[in-house]
Amino acid sequence: MKKKNVLWIFALLMLAFGMSSCSSDDDTSFSLWGTWSVVGYGNDQDFHTGDNIVNTTKLTFYSDGTFDGNIFPNKVSGKYNYNENNFSFTEIFGTKLGAVDPDLDHISDYIRESKSYKILSGSELRLYYDAENYVKFVKVN
Fold first, then answer.
1. What average pLDDT does the segment 115-132 reach?
2. Each residue of 22-55: pLDDT tens digit?
């Protein structure tokens, strides 16, 4: 009888641990590594997007702390640091051509000023350049 109770408790514990590892819509444990494309910037009340923004900026983050990509019209590369609360570019190299569209210049500056990040549902990356404003990316691969 005691053996059945121990097995039953063990099964319940395994079920509880399995359920606690399910991801949520606000899962920041998903990897930053991979390629991300910008879809806009701003905050939840005032968000800017458009054809001039979508697919013009892509960044690829690698597991060794380096990145490369395009912040239109510039090619960029460098290094970054992140942990569960903070994000920063420690080195950024690239061209500094002026963008034709002011929105693209804003995105370039905002990305460079990023201080924290959040990954939502594993497919949306937000790089925050202040407490509530962010550049929004979607996962490409």
1. 91
2. 433 444 444 889 999 999 999 999 998 877 777 7
Please give the Cα distance from 111 to 123 (Å, whole number).
18
* Phi-psi group of 23: left, alpha or beta (phi > 0 → left; psi -120 to 50 → alpha; rest → beta): beta
140, 35 Cβ separation under 8 angstroms: yes
85-109: pLDDT as tens digits: 788 888 878 766 655 566 666 788 8
Are 104 and 52 spatial neighbours (Cβ–Cβ below 8 Å)? Answer: yes
Place of tokens 């570019």: 89
Q: Which pLDDT score is estimated for 9?
A: 54
Burial track 44-75 (b if 16+ CB lie within 10 A, e otherwise): eeeeeeeeebeebbbbbbeeeeebbbbbbebe
Q: Is the pTM of this model over 0.90?
A: no
Report which of 114, 105, 120 is spatially closest to residue 133, judged by C-alpha positions: 114
Listing DSSP states for 10-55 in one string gives HHHHHHHHHHHTS--TT-TTS---EEEEEEEEE-SSSEE--TTTTT
